[in-house]
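Milestone M4 deliverable, item 7.
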Amino acid sequence: MTQELQQARDDLEQAAKTADDDDDVRGDIRETADAFADYVMSDTEPDHALLDERLNTLRQVRERADGNTESKVESAIETTETYRESLDQA
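Output delivered:
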């Protein structure tokens, strides 16, 4: 469970390092990476709604990013979607 979110967080950390000087993109990436870190360390798992919100943010970031940043964000999206599919629906 947390391994997937940890991988997504790691991808986002790398994406933040390669992001252009666009503070909005870098800020959105870091905010989502921090949220994933909280999920990994928490005893409770995020629900579908929380993950959907984070995925929406990442999809918007992907549209504004390019190169390695875009690639790492895409990887984080795929990993998060895989994790989300494993959750029980409320």
